Amino acid sequence: MNNDCLYCNKNQTQKDLMIEICELSVSTVFLFKEQTYKGRCVIAYKDHNVELYQLSPEELLAFMTDVNKVAATLAKLYSPAKINYGAYSDKLPHLHIHLAPKYVDGADYGSTFVMNPQKVYLTDPEYTEMINSIKKELVK
Ligand SMILES: [Zn+2]
Q1: DSSP code of 114?
Q2: What does the pLDDT look like over 61-110, one tens digit per residue?
Q3: How many domains does the chain have?
Q4: What is the 27 CA–ligand 1 centroid distance (Å)?
Q5: 41 inside domain
Q6: Which domain holds residue 64?
Q7: Domain at 51, CATH number
C-alpha cells in the first residue's frame, strides 16, 4: 500500500482515467476511459511496488492467467487483429498491464499504442454497456 499510488488509493486521478470492471484472482480490471483502441483495459496486480520478476511462479501464473482472461474476452467481444500488452510504470511502480486491442484500419496499427491519445471518449451508457459485456465474460 502506497498513499501516493492511484491503484492503492483508487483516487480521483484513477477515476478520471479508468472505471473498475471487476476483480479477478490476483488483480483488478479497469476499462480505460480513452477508447481510441476499442476495448482498452488495464489490469492492476493486487500489491504495490512489485516487478514481474519479483513474483513467485504461482503469483506470476495467477497474474498472467488474469491478463489472459481479459485478453481473450476482448478478442471475443471486439475481434481486434492483435492485442498489445504494455507494462511501463516508470513513475507509478504498481504492477499493471495495459491491454490495447489493435485493428488493421485503426489507430497505430503496426506501431506502438499511444499511452493516452485523449481523443475518443464514450457516453456513460456506452461505458456501462462495455463494462457489462466484459464483466459478463469475465465473471462466469
Ligand atoms: Zn499501489
Answers
A1: P
A2: 999 999 999 999 999 999 999 999 999 988 888 999 999 999 999 999 99
A3: 1
A4: 12
A5: yes
A6: 6-138
A7: 3.30.428.10
